Amino acid sequence: MFSKIYNRYKPYYKENLHLALPIVGSQVGHTLVHMADSIIVGHFTDTIQLAAVSLVNSIFMLILVIGLGISYGLTPLIAQENGRQHYDECGKLLSNSLIINICVGVLLYVLVQVGIFFVIDRLDQTPEVVRYAKPYLNLLSVSIIPLLIFQTFKQFAEGLGFTKQAMFVSIWGNAINIILGIIFVKGMFGIQSMGVSGVGLSTLIDRILMAAVMCFYVLRSKHFKKYLTGFKATFFDKIRAVKIAKIGMPVAMQYSFEISAFSGAALLIGTIGAIEQAAHQIAISLAAMTYMIASGVASAATIKTGNNFGKNNFDDLRKSAIASYHVILLFMSCTAVIFVIANDLMPFIYTEDATVIPIAAQLLIIAGFFQLFDGTQVVGLGVLRGMGDVNMPTLITFLAYWVVGIPIGYVLGFHFNLGVNGIWYGLTLGLLTASMLLFLRFQNKTRSLN
């Protein structure tokens, strides 16, 4: 039976993986920045500062995914217009996306600044943790603007099937981030030790360089010449802006509902204690890494689906989407086994604190169980996004995380005294709900196309 399935979908496995692997490399780059921050701070400072990283990431990621989600609105439109051979339209969409993303970056910067002074002190967190968190969050907020400029050109290139370049930029960017982070945190080469603020500064420098390189590549490469005939940095058209926003805003909401659920969980855990919060940061950083790999597969599924949708090739659309589901189920099954088997060892990547490691090890077992659900729900979102179906999936994500996940996690954690484990059980149920409902939505939508 397995050989029959493999032979049927073999061409689609190869196409999807060829497209997905470079995207995975660049998607993982976003997580590696925060993962590297956690590792550097965990090894070169103390548990309080690691808890500060957890608090900041839980807040910042909630803001950041709004910008990332809006930037993702460009990709399916580019893929569809390329499928229709409307090359001039691709450049016009890029112009509008660039203006939208810069404006969104500035607005998100202002939003974070307001949050630093009016929200973070009112979250019932350990005062020492908050003191270290503020300057780190301040630096990350500035980095939103160059990151969204990078995203604009990245999503444009990937929508046209050019996925390797963004991966290389992300790899070099992360190498620079790690090197500078260690120098700034430890205080090397005559630079005074900056503690947790050091990784914030290294991240800002990294994202400025990445934006500059990706922009230069797209605007100067011969590969994009025919697609840039309609591009002009100051060109703004209301109709095209609305098209981008109609996809980008719901995508931003989808990511926001999921990430805010995990951010909400982090804040709930923070009320339990700094040790539990540090353990949560370790487990969620590792789970986020596999999620971003799944997100790369989902982005490839968006591109292939959008391209087939633009060509009205619905049979290939469905087969390609199912092949993406197969790939992610196989990968997440492997990571689930690793999380469960190596749960006692993996926390040592971040810390040697004997009070944090046992709690993080327990959370990694739970993370192992929700790997399959996390992977299939993000691929489901990617496939539906390629068809331009974003509104119902947005409602599904809200129901899964904020009607099922967080409420159940709160009840299990605090009323049934399961603590941090109970909160993670709730998150697992939320992911299960999302994955099932999104797959059913995919089945209904693709059947109606034939």
UniProtKB/TrEMBL annotation:
UniProt keyword list: Antiport, Cell membrane, Ion transport, Membrane, Transmembrane, Transmembrane helix, Transport
Location(s) in or outside the cell: Cell membrane
KW Transmembrane (keyword) present: yes
Topology of the protein relative to the lipid bilayer: Multi-pass membrane protein
Domain of life of the source: Bacteria
Gene Ontology biological process terms, A to Z: monoatomic ion transport
Protein name: Multidrug-efflux transporter
Organism ancestry: Bacteria, Pseudomonadati, Bacteroidota, Sphingobacteriia, Sphingobacteriales
